[in-house]
Amino acid sequence: MYDIKHSYGLFIALIITLVLISGCIGTETDEGTEPEEVIDWKEVELTDTITGDTFKISDFEGQTVMLETFAVWCPTCLQQQKEMEELAGIKPGVIHISLDTDPNEDTELVRDHAEKNGFDWYFAVAPIEMTESLIDEFGFVVVNAPSAPVVLICNDQSTRLLDRGLKQSDELIMELEEGC
Questions:
Q1: Fewest Cβ atoms closer than 10 Å to its Cβ: which of 96, 130, 162, 164?
Q2: How far is CA 123 from CA 70, 107, 116, in A?
Q3: CA 141 distance to own-chain centroid
Q4: What parts of the sequence cross the membrane (predicted)?
């Protein structure tokens, strides 16, 4: 079993390191060097930990997607996933993706989490470049697991980070009706 304080501390240390490193990498070109490539997180290939199939967020263009970032150790995340499960029963056409952004967790741990809880939607582990791209677009809150981050992705692939905190299924329905 993971020590929650230790895992959370390591996660915060990694994020701080990434910020410090990114501040040292310039985007201006020097003689003979190319500018740093900007990664679109919707184009990063992911592997569904349950089925082994690969997908990208952009594969769901034309559909509404709820992308929830989480960590296996996070009890708030589990509560949010249960609300997402309830939402799926009410609004079956919405694609749901749970994206683990904790660098200390792996595919096997995420698959065990999904199976243990009876969840059957997309579960994936975010590669570090995807996590960095999400942070670039939405800020650090998007990887702050205890704040239950959820990104609403509309049919046209426009995005909106929903308010922080646990969102009940009825609140998620209202967000869907207002957001896309």
A1: 164
A2: 10, 9, 13
A3: 11
A4: none
Give the rounded distance of the alpha carbon of 21 from its chain centre: 22
Closest CA to 71 of 161, 180, 148: 148
Point out which residues pair with 96 in neighbouring strands.
Answer: 66
What does the alpha-carbon distance between residue 38 and residue 134 come to, in Å, rounded to a whole number? 11
Nearest to 144 by CA among 82, 89, 76: 76
Whether residue 55 contacts residue 65, with contact meaning beta carbons closer than 8 Å, is answered with: no
Per-residue pLDDT of the chain (180 residues; tens, 9 = 90+): 455 555 555 555 445 544 444 554 444 444 555 555 678 999 999 999 999 999 999 999 999 999 999 999 999 999 999 999 999 888 888 999 999 999 999 999 999 999 999 999 999 999 999 999 999 999 999 999 999 999 999 988 899 999 989 999 889 988 888 877
Q: What six digits make up the tokens of 25?
A: 């990498």
- Distance of alpha carbon 143 from alpha carbon 16, whole angstroms: 12
Among 128, 100, 102, smallest CA distance to 21 is for 128
| Residue 28 confidence (pLDDT) | 45
Its pTM stands at 0.76
Nearest Cα to 17, choosing from 131, 109, 108? Answer: 131
- Cα angle 40, 138, 154 (rounded to 5 degrees) comes to 65
